[in-house]
Amino acid sequence: MAIDPASPVPKYLQLRDLLLDWIVETGLSVDDPVPSERELGARYDLSRMTVRQTIDLLCSEGKLYRVPGKGTFVARPKIEMSLALASFTQDMLARGYRPGARDLIRRIIPASGHIARMMDIPPGSPVHHIERLRTADDEPMAVERSNIPVSIAPNLDSYSLSGRSLYQILEQEFGILLDSGEQTIEAGICDAADARLLGLPHGSPVLSMQRRSFGKGACVELAISTYRADRYQLHSRLDPRQ
Ligand code: GLP
Question: What is the CA(65)–ligand 1 centre distance, in A?
């Protein structure tokens, strides 16, 4: 296939699709190099600027990545974020990754008015506030900030969460089974603190996630999390409207 100069589709977008097809057809895999901008320009008879625009786009889409002075390479496919009431541990294991967690903050705090309203608990009531850096195969993936009423899991703070799933502890130690939940996910920009934790440049795109999970009608967890947008994508099955 070649670039069609008469097409209404801009050349850099045509090149994007050609390159993606070419990567599949030639069987390139993760970390394999793609041809240089100069080679691509010559191959498709395009200016260096157009080729750069395409490569920039593919890098921002997470399909390619650049190593200064070395070239451009095929990136790992993004992880599909499950839209189910699953734990991070379950999600990662299901996708073949080794889940991990590093405690950043664990303390009991009085629920602010805002948090209390969202959790339907009296303002000021104590909640376990847990901030964790979540990893997959040791790579930072997300910063998760959970709030759990002390009334439903009184001595949760005495359980170590490193190498253990929070949902599993809630179930096994406190008999709490999550039976429903709701989640909002929106595009965001990484602040300086999360960027440092996630090893991203400040201002990188992220997915901001807010989840409320319930057990027997009571809010068990309010979690506000930051997921790397360069490693995650949302996927859902679409069923016809009933
Ligand atoms: C998901 C949810 C979090 C929850 C976590 C529990 O990532 N977004 O709200 O805290 O799972 O994961 P785990 O049981 O692995 O600690």
Answer: 29
Mutation probe of ligand 1 site: the residue of 128, 166, 177 with most atoms within 8 A of C-beta: 166
Buried b / exposed e over 220-234, threshold 16 CB at 10 Å, is: bbbbbbbbbbbbbee
For the chain, percent of residues with pLDDT exceeding 70: 100
Q: How confident is the model at residue 80 (pLDDT cuts 50, 70, 90)?
A: confident
Residue 82 pLDDT: 78
pLDDT value at 242 more than 80: no
Domains of the chain (ranges, CATH numbers): 11-74 (1.10.10.10), 79-234 (3.40.1410.10)
Q: What is the ipTM of this complex?
A: 0.99
8 Å CB contact between 44 and 19: no
CB of 227 within 6 A of ligand 1: the answer is no
Closest ligand 1 atom number to CA of residue 209: 8
